[in-house]
Amino acid sequence: MALYLVQHGKNLSKEIDPEQSLSEEGRREVEKIAETAANYDVIVGKIHHSGKKRAEQTAEILAEKLGVNDVSEAGGLKALDEPAEFVKDIIPGENLMLVGHLPFMERMASLLVTGKTDYTVFKFQNGGIVCLDRLPDSGLWAVMWALMPNIGGP
């Protein structure tokens, strides 16, 4: 089973767009990452997003490029939600993609990899995908791979 964690693409400011839709740059970056993932034959069964406009748009782009028909809003993926609550609902054996926000995504990755939410085990970028795989012996997860829009640093 693969679990894909995605921070939404870059968005417009509240002053420009109160809903904070994806910016053109954000849309381009998510499309590029999604096309790369599709070229690698990444298989996703279902995509959940937080319901915020930027996360929904990111999820829709990924779904289109990866051929995913099951895209829906899910509670518990907002920035300040508790990852431990969401982890309870993950179904083993299902390749699932979650599209949400920081600090939730970093805290979720930390919880899955270390068992605690207070470590940074991966530095997310807007529009990037982090793929985790469950380790059978410990029940913890490991980072298998990541696709990020920028590899040159901050």
Ordered list of secondary-structure elements with their pairings:
Layout: E1 2-7, H1 24-39, E2 46-49, H2 53-66, E3 71-73, H3 83-87, E4 96-100, H4 104-114, E5 129-134, E6 141-147
Which descriptors would you attach to this protein?
6-stranded mixed β-sheet, globular, alpha/beta, 30% helix, Rossmann fold, 4 helices
Strand content: 15-25%
Number of helices: 4
The protein's oligomeric status is single chain
Percent of residues in helices: 25-40%
User: In the CATH classification, which architecture applies?
Assistant: 3-Layer(aba) Sandwich
> N-to-C terminal Cα separation, in Å?
31 Å
Low-confidence residue ranges: none
Secondary-structure element string? EHEHEHEHEE
Categorize the overall geometry.
globular
Based on secondary structure, the structural category is: alpha/beta
Main β-sheet: number of strands, strand sense, barrel status? 6 strands, mixed
Mean pLDDT: 94
Number of domains: 1
CATH superfamily: Phosphoglycerate mutase-like
- Spatial strand order of the main sheet: 3-2-4-1-5-6
**Rg (C-alpha, Å):** 14 Å
Indicate the CATH class: Alpha Beta
- CATH level 3 topology: Rossmann fold
Beta-strand segment tally: 6
